[in-house]
Amino acid sequence: MAKAPVLTPRADDFPRWYQDLITKAELADNGPVRGTMVIRPYGYGLWERMQHDMDVRIKETGTQNAYFPLLIPQSYLTREAEHVEGFTPELAVVTHGGGKELEEPVVIRPTSETIVNEYFSKWVQSYRDLPLLINQWANVVRWELRPRLFLRTSEFLWQEGHTAHATYEEARDFAARIHRHVYGSFLRDLLAMDFVLGRKTAGERFAGAINTLTLEGMMGDGKALQLGTSHELGQNFAEAFGTRYLSRDGEQELVWQTSWGSTTRMIGALVMMHGDDNGLRLPPRLAPVQAVVLAVKDDEAVLAKAREIGERLTAAGVRVQVDDRTETPFGRRAVDWELKGVPVRVEIGPRDLENGTAMLVRRIAGGKQPVALDALTALLPAVLEEDQELLLTQARARRESRTSDVADVGEAVEAAVAGGWARLPWAVLGAAGEARLAEHGVTVRCLVAEDGAVPDADDAPGNVAVVARAY
Amino acid sequence: MAKAPVLTPRADDFPRWYQDLITKAELADNGPVRGTMVIRPYGYGLWERMQHDMDVRIKETGTQNAYFPLLIPQSYLTREAEHVEGFTPELAVVTHGGGKELEEPVVIRPTSETIVNEYFSKWVQSYRDLPLLINQWANVVRWELRPRLFLRTSEFLWQEGHTAHATYEEARDFAARIHRHVYGSFLRDLLAMDFVLGRKTAGERFAGAINTLTLEGMMGDGKALQLGTSHELGQNFAEAFGTRYLSRDGEQELVWQTSWGSTTRMIGALVMMHGDDNGLRLPPRLAPVQAVVLAVKDDEAVLAKAREIGERLTAAGVRVQVDDRTETPFGRRAVDWELKGVPVRVEIGPRDLENGTAMLVRRIAGGKQPVALDALTALLPAVLEEDQELLLTQARARRESRTSDVADVGEAVEAAVAGGWARLPWAVLGAAGEARLAEHGVTVRCLVAEDGAVPDADDAPGNVAVVARAY
């Protein structure tokens, strides 16, 4: 008789598999207020490691961290016309504070462009103050009617960058630099994620932007997920808030701006891009625990050896946890580590000890093989790097195999509904075609140039639309 | 003619001096919603360094980080009677979300004991799940009628720890451990802060606690500031939320809990404990920039030497910034670094270069002296450690010189109003005396045992009340 699976198989019900995994791997729980979430220590540990790595990359661009208030006067949002239209339906409004009704209601930030500009307009006086490069790590609230843990939550954690520059070109180049060299490198090098880097169509842009760059990843079910965005804001917010500087020529000029964000949604992406029917599969460079050393049995020699191996691997720079909870059945512990996606298990029992070996179980490459105890320390770092590569290769192979070139809107819808991505010329699709896609719950994820580069304009000749269903 | 001071002198108007310093050193600005604040990069850099250091200390206790939602159903707060009474006047209430009026209003967390217990009651099943040690870094909102930057803000950043234990003793010991070995060591070793560690009276306890430990520091004007608190919650929240565990004996038992927090208020404390009439004085271990190398003049040889010194000091492990902005007058830059509290300035001009020396200017010990360029690298780390010590010594000396032993309530009020701390037997003061103090805006900051230890009970024989005006 086959064992009952720990998770609903992906092929049976992908959303259910996702929810099962999040719960059973103890990544997060639903919060009491609809759409909010409790990020549990194992899930938060992933976020901490993401934060740390991305924070270093952000600072390398010369950007400094700061903190702007959670609460924004409602009137600020109305100053930029597209912005207020885009965000009003999602706002959480505070009407009472300190036991009294407020004179002007305040909103919880859905994003901070407006309040940031209120201060940029004070801090920026002359060209010497530019570029002004600020980032904040914060929570934001966007009321969510169909919430899903990590992917769409009413409150999420993120970083939001806000910059002001003297020229259009500088702002454009900075947004592109963040996109490719902060987000792109981060997702690929740390999270082993595959993505397409492109430009949003006018209909899909951030509310108030003149251009939005996006990174789109393919999930295990073939749907797309936006992994991060970087916006050129032009002078829209500068105009609304009077963010001006005295140029070298002695003229008062509006600044050019960017904003860019990445969120706890990336944890959801990690699950859906790399997870399998047995649970999470963590990229070794991200994994808080890269290798777990499991004592199979409550045996003194085994426990001592497990701890010794743990120490030797730690000394070799591997992040190790020794699992000596032998009161819990071995099988249950092994399944749990598999669920949690720890890249490598080193299992050691009395028989292994006799043979001078341990069983090496690889979560990503799969398979198990006995390895001489003396060889472990030298072997593991290489195995972890190999598995890091393999995750990326697998994700890329899936996207490539499930992406097809199509000739018209009908075929694009068909491909997307079947769980894949379609590519077709933007000149064929256009805004009218985009509206037809929408009737089937299909969207243009991004536009890319013929050679795969990011186009300078929606209507640049040869632009290809990447079309899919999306989270 | 004397130069106009950069800041209002402390002796003239201490609150004004504080506000001037915060603004001119670019630590923070007032936010648009009353009581909120914008933490600017220089101020946030201090917070980041504090966070990092404290996070390491917290994790060393076995505590893990997690994240609970910002929004809490109003009904949660009402479950613990003292808690709701304590926090209701300070709540920010969200009544509308996603364009609709909410069925049940939700509040922005003023602190998270209630929502944490909602989840602890699910996560804790058996004695094997204990102790459960959780911390979160988050923002909280407590509506503030008389706000002051960093000290009392409607939104502030903090860490809040929440733990559950099997026994009263374990919880008590854990709260004490956090207090002494996390907060106490942090404040003393990193921030060079002097404090008295004691126990709050029943009247000053956290709403819902059975005991509150506090660290009280004396500010530059002799007033007290609470620097961090650690609470024994007993079983109050466990009872309200049904947080029970199956004991080894097979009984369902309520857990014993602690909570503990420290906030961005510590930045205000840093300013008021160490600042002088010229600005901030940063403890070298905390300072994001420990030494600034100032090129006095726009001279190629000077600039080259300044950069070379910068590189050598960096290589020696000093956090250095080279100030080569020679288009700004030297005097203005020097005043600005003084304002920002950078511990050491290394000034180099053409004449210094001729002499093979640089001028070493010490912000904390004071004074300036020429130092041979070759000697700088060896000298600076020792100077920084000496200055770290000196800040602590100065703070302690001030508290000791401005604390007096008094015999009755009248004398205690007199000492506090004159800008000092008074010590008198709790047996003499008592709750009735506490009420009389309150008429003069004076409070019992904490109770300490005769030998300086933390008392086990308010009424332990020999308890001394430390009495002061406070922020």
Q: Can you tell me about this structure?
A:
2 copies of one chain form a homodimer. Chain A is an alpha+beta fold and 471 residues long. Chain A folds into 3 domains: 14-274, Bira Bifunctional Protein, Domain 2 (BirA Bifunctional Protein, domain 2), CATH 3.30.930.10; 291-383, Rossmann fold, CATH 3.40.50; 403-468. Helices cover 37% and strands 27% of the residues of chain A. Chain A has 14 helices and 23 strands. Chain A has helices at 14-24, 41-60, 74-77, 81-87, 113-123, 168-190, 236-241, 265-274, 300-315, 330-339, 350-355, 376-401, 409-417, 426-438; strands at 28-30, 37-39, 64-65, 71-73, 92-97, 100-108, 132-141, 155-165, 196-199, 211-218, 224-234, 244-246, 252-254, 256-263, 291-295, 320-323, 344-348, 357-362, 368-372, 403-405, 421-425, 443-448, 464-468. In chain A, helix 2 packs across helix 6 (168-190). The two termini of chain A are 37 Å apart. The mean pLDDT of chain A is 96. At the A-B interface, strand 2, helix 2, strand 3, strand 4 and strand 5 of A face strand 2, helix 2, strand 3, strand 4 and strand 5 of B. Strand 5 (92-97) of chain A pairs antiparallel with strand 5 (92-97) of chain B, so a sheet runs across the interface.
